[in-house]
Design a protein that fits this description.
It is a single-pass type IV membrane protein. Keywords: Coiled coil, Golgi apparatus, Membrane, Protein transport, Transmembrane, Transmembrane helix, Transport. One of its GO terms (molecular function) is SNAP receptor activity. Belongs to the syntaxin family. Residues 168-230 form the T-SNARE coiled-coil homology domain. This protein has 264 residues and is mainly α. The protein has a domain at 3-136: Methane Monooxygenase Hydroxylase, Chain G, domain 1, CATH 1.20.58.90. The chain is built from 6 helices and no strands. The chain has helices at residues 15-36, 43-76, 81-84, 88-112, 115-130, 138-258. The chain starts with 14 loop residues before the first helix and ends in a 6-residue tail after the last helix.
Length: 264
Amino acid sequence: MSCLAIVDPLGSPCGPLQKAVNTAQGLFQRWTDLLQDPSISTREELDWTTNELRNNLRSIEWDLEDLDETINILFTLRSNPRKFSLDPAELRQRKAFISETRQCVKDMKDRMTSPSVQALTEKKNRQALLGEGTKHGWNLETEKYKALDQELENANSQFLDGQVGQQQLIMEQQDEQLELVSGSIGVLKNMSQRIGSELDEQAVMLDDFSHELDTAQSRMDNVLKKLAKVSHMTSGEYEPFCYVLASRRSCQEICSNTGCGSSL
């Protein structure tokens, strides 16, 4: 695929990057024309175009690295596609777009540093120093220069707007996740408070039950002591008294049978 045929198949979020690539391709074409035909430009315009092209290519490489890293992260999240709404085919198309764009940037950089281009650049510089360059069509080229500058400014502005929009979307998603987490924390807090109240109530009930057990135990001890006392009196202290009563009754029966006048 040629460098000029690179098109993002899915649009946003690669849209700003696509515009940056188109701008770089326009600069590269203009740079090539200026280099091949010194009569249509000045040295200042060639230097400006060269610097702008290098800066744009460097910026595109940084954006490609960020986008490639993001897509690699998304590939690791494919285990849960329903949660993150990820389409493997879309991710593969993004990777292909990144590879093609990176190759396009490499081709332009290689062209700018090739020996033939270096020779043309040196020739252009010598012509400028010797006064061989021409100012033919200077006014027309100045207008083109201004138009190209405006186009670059618009492209940069659109790219920045796209980046701000993406950051805003990410922040909104993070806010939604924080709200969900906050709601879950509130539910857990209410549950912990209820559990704490129930534990306090059960602790009070256990204290009351323990007090009742202590009271019942004390009463049981008193009853057992009384029973032990009664049992001791029955088995020990009342036995001589019963013996005396039994002996006296036997004597009375003997006297009544023998006619004894004495009585006990």
